[in-house]
Amino acid sequence: MSKGFIITKWTEDRGLVIHLKYPETINVDLDDMMRIFYAHITGAGEAGYVVVRLEKAQSNVASYFTGIDSSNPYMINLMLELGEDPETYGEKVIRDIYYDILKYLLEMDKDMYKAPELIKELKVYLRETMILLERLKNLTKEQKMAQIYTGEKTRKILQLLQQKAMSRKELQNRLEDQLKKIITNLDITLEPFIKADLIKQDWVERSTDVHIFLQNDFTIFRGTPKKLMNEAKKDQPTNYLAKQYLKKVREFYNGYTPTFEDNIKIASHMINPDTYDYIALLRDKPYPLNKLPKSSGSVAKQTADLLYNLEQDNIISIIEDEKDIKWVFLLSDIIVQNFYPEYLVENIRKDFVGGDLRREIATKHLEILETAYPKS
């Protein structure tokens, strides 16, 4: 599990200083912090991410640096257990966390009088973030697939495996070539694929490396909340609310066009455990806003922010009834759907006939697809 956060700042007069840490009990070694700092500034010292292994502190550190030339050179360090990889949580989740922390830090720099209150708010955020990171280890299959879709690296792996089966070495080489960066710990990157039952790893005769075969594929899209719509057609929860809800659903879908950007947006909501809880809850029925169960991982302000984001992204709609009571409805459901990758059978045939695929690999992949077909 994550150990906590250490935020440092580079100053011209004092060098690297500890700006904030959470929890307070977390041990800080400035020599270790300098090692992370040097990892960032080697080269141009630009803004970016690094992962550093600290043997002395028995930690892996996922660090973000705002850049040596930024007006406020902050270094945000997520302290992990030794051997733990930040990719376990999904690259987009980690980047979003750093972005949120940075907003607090920059707000403090703009108004020093607000700093004490902002520090209190930031510590609450860091506490809730540690709870979130722990919950991210227990995602459902559909959340794992959404995690794959939102990550640049995992999305590229899926695209490569949709073309053909590859050895681990070939997959890593092609991934590094296309993303223009070194890929470390491929096992961690492949973990959501395994947990979502999308790939099969196996040895092939006359091969010196394990091959990775795609056996299931998936798609993500917005779907109409069928259960809620059927209930609304029966005037539930009230005639007035039902009419208003059906009108909003029709208006949204009449003007909706699926895009890659929108798919990324809705997939991002799926991998947040608190957001996912609300989507799952609202699939069943609408709730008065003041009676909506509180998420297990959020405080009141975060719940309000979460609902606001869902409303802005047209996942939920808040409708007032005749008594001015606000109700929360699911406006568009998020569907993550497995499907059998029948297209791979034709890919295998073409590659084999064209001499680009060995018989052993073609046979093994077809056997895997045949085994997976009944499950699909």
Q: Which keywords apply here?
A:
376 residues; Beta-Lactamase; Arc Repressor Mutant, subunit A; 3 domains; 5-stranded antiparallel β-sheet; 3-stranded antiparallel β-sheet; 13 strands
3D structure, described in words:
- The chain is α+β, with helices and mostly antiparallel strands and 376 residues long.
- The protein has 3 domains: 4-136, Beta-Lactamase, CATH 3.30.450; 141-216 and 340-372, Arc Repressor Mutant, subunit A (Orthogonal Bundle), CATH 1.10.10; 219-336, Orthogonal Bundle (Arc Repressor Mutant, subunit A).
- The protein is built from 14 helices and 13 strands.
- The chain has helices at 30-41, 91-110, 115-135, 141-150, 152-161, 168-179, 186-195, 226-232, 239-254, 260-270, 273-282, 300-312, 343-353, 359-372; strands at 4-11, 15-22, 48-54, 59-65, 74-81, 166-167, 199-202, 211-214, 217-223, 287-288, 316-320, 326-330, 333-339.
- Strands 2-1-5-4-3 form a 5-stranded antiparallel β-sheet, with helices on both faces.
- Helix 2 runs antiparallel to helix 3 (115-135), helix 4 crosses helix 10 (260-270) and helix 13 runs antiparallel to helix 14 (359-372).
- It starts with a strand and ends with a helix.
- The relative contact order is 0.09.
- The model has no long low-confidence stretch (mean pLDDT 91).
